[in-house]
């Protein structure tokens, strides 16, 4: 996952609202959003899945847990001894609390990551990272784990630290803020889908300096990434929101769009296929 904006407890009609794009190489095998069980876990989850290493970047469990993951960009990004995609799965499995999760993470074993974990029922949220919030792009490795509790509010993550004000992150956060004011779910979803499909690049003077070449910074500065010449781009987009149902139950609605890589004359981009729609009851 490379761009996420989310609102926690920011509006009574939308106690949780998430919009995110996952950017990845087209050749990396991936399963779209579906229901599956984390090995050794006790809960079913709804998530896409990396079929190479088995992990995920954004998932929702039937016990009310949520996990979101982004990489941290640097000029010489190290893959790490372990796959970052396993980190969300540890939380979604539902067998540890936040302290236990943090104690099991060896920061030096992973490439740079941001991990947001939450428990909707308990109201507990936190951000964890193995890169310094002050200089996330200059560290080849880290021996410490940074951790911050998250209260009600609107947050954004891309490939820097939490709420680093990159233009595309700020644009998606603004879209989430506007969506919170929409009384109808379909209108909010359409607004967020439009924001996730945005291919406009940031002006050169607003683009970050993360150590990669300037032409790459430019290509990566839009919410929706299209780097077909490098075999890379936005692979999927997801909008999730929780709302109250009958008998005081909560419902989680998930909408995921898949964006295949270019094939023959077809260009990579936001396709015409309808999203996968899932509704989960969180009693």
Give a short overview.
The chain has five helices and 14 strands. The model has no long low-confidence stretch (mean pLDDT 91).
How does this structure look, described?
With about 280 residues, the chain is an alpha+beta fold. The chain has a single domain, classed as Penicillin V Acylase, Chain A, CATH 3.60.60. It has 5 helices and 14 strands. Strands 1, 2, 10, 11, 12, 13 and 14 form a 7-stranded antiparallel beta sheet that branches. It has a 7-stranded antiparallel beta sheet with strand order 3-4-5-6-7-8-9, covered by helices on one side. Helix 3 runs antiparallel to helix 4 (about 185-195).
Percentage of residues assigned to helices: 10-25%
Q: Are there runs of 5+ residues with pLDDT below 50, and where? A: none
CATH topology title:
Penicillin V Acylase, Chain A
Query: What multimeric state do the chains show?
Result: single chain
Core attributes:
alpha+beta; seven-stranded antiparallel sheet; 283 residues; Penicillin V Acylase, Chain A; 34% strand; 5 helices
């Amino acid at each position: 996952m490379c761009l996420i904006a989310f609102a926690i407890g920011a509006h009574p009609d939308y106690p949780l609202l998430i919009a995110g794009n996952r950017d990845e190489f087209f050749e990396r095998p991936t399963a779209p959003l579906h229901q599956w069980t984390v090995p050794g876990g006790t809960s079913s989850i709804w998530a896409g899945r990396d079929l190479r290493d088995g992990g995920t970047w954004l998932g929702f469990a039937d016990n009310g847990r949520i996990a979101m993951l982004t990489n941290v960009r640097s000029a010489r990004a190290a893959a790490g001894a372990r796959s970052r995609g396993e980190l969300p799965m540890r939380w979604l499995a539902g067998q540890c609390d936040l302290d236990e999760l943090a104690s099991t993470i060896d920061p030096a074993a992973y490439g740079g990551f941001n991990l947001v974990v939450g428990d909707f029922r308990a109201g507990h949220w936190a951000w964890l990272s193995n890169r310094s919030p002050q200089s996330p792009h200059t560290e080849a490795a880290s021996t410490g784990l940074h951790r911050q509790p998250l209260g009600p509010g609107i947050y954004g993550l891309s490939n820097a630290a939490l709420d680093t004000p990159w233009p595309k992150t700020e644009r998606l956060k603004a879209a989430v803020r506007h969506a919170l004011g929409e009384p109808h779910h379909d209108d909010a979803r359409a607004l967020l889908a439009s924001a996730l499909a945005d291919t406009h690049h940031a002006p050169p003077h607003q683009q970050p300096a993360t150590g990669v070449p300037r032409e790459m910074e430019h290509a990566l500065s839009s919410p929706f990434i299209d780097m077909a010449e490098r075999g890379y781009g936005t692979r999927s987009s997801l909008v999730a929101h929780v709302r109250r149902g009958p008998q005081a139950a909560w419902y989680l609605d998930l909408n995921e769009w898949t964006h295949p890589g270019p094939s023959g004359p077809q260009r990579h981009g936001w396709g015409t296929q309808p999203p996968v729609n899932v509704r989960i009851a969180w009693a």
